[in-house]
Amino acid sequence: MASLTKVIRIPQTLLSSYMGALCQRYKTARLRALKEDPQAFSSTYDKESQFDDSVWAERLQNPQAKTFVTLRAEETGGAESSEIEQLSANEWLGMIVLLGPRALPTDGSESKTPWKPFLAASDIDQPLDLATIADSEAAYVAFSMFVLAEARRQGLGRKLVQTSVEAARAEAMSMGATRANIGLWAEAQNEAARKLYEGCGFRLLPHDPAMDALENPQVAMGKLLEFKSDGDSE
Predict the structure, then answer these.
(1) Name one GO molecular function term (predicted).
(2) Does the structure show a pLDDT above 80 at 229?
């Protein structure tokens, strides 16, 4: 039976009947990634393996986060299952989380540190005031990116990144932003990850002292999406 690899965004409103299965899928994939590539994360396997289901559920339902999962679903030839059913029934091979948006200063002073509003904001989990994004630069941060070892070299990482970028583009444009600015931190020694992001249009940014607190050296990267006055982007 043929299979199809796809990227699915997890709905932020989830039926309770699916919550247990999705939390287990999330937990299994995330803990594997933490255990197999610990240097790629700021968190640890020892820490997150102690989380109970409520923590995983809270992450999945964070109103400020957009979570994208890649999986391989079987093509049955019959009625197509829903995306939520596919998320529940199939192993998660990779994931990326996009946090935002938040408005950056109009003078461009923080355009090279688009993650700054997320480090400082005390209300990061609170609903966004949409009016703050209109006519401003919309900042996003991509994090928790991973593809499990057996699923690498198949273009899944690129699919995850590109899907998250397009989601940020569409949302920022719909809110009337002048442009979208997506930032991320990548492990300095992970050349494959840097090349992946560069292939998706991300560029190296100046070092941010906020990164010095991390155990593993990181490099800062960003992608700026300019919107034309007629609503199109470039």
Answers:
(1) acyltransferase activity, transferring groups other than amino-acyl groups
(2) no
Asked if pLDDT for residue 104 goes beyond 80, the answer is yes
Name the CATH superfamily, with its identifier, for domain 3-226: Gcn5-related N-acetyltransferase (GNAT) (3.40.630.30)
Q: Which tens digit of pLDDT belongs to each residue from 107-139?
A: 889 999 999 988 865 555 566 677 789 999 999
How far is 213 from 150, CA to CA, in rounded Å? 32
Q: What angle do CA 125, 131, 135 make, to 5 degrees?
A: 120
What is the edge-to-edge ordering of all strands in the sheet holding 203-205? 3-9, 65-74, 92-104, 137-147, 179-187, 218-226, 203-205
Q: Does the N-terminal peptide bond of residue 117 adopt cis geometry, omega within 30 degrees of 0?
A: no
Helices 53-60 and 16-36, packing angle to 10 deg: 100
The secondary structure of 129-197 as a DSSP string is -GGGTTTSEEEEEEEEEEE-GGG-SSSHHHHHHHHHHHHHHHHHHHTT-SEEEEEEEEETT-HHHHHHH
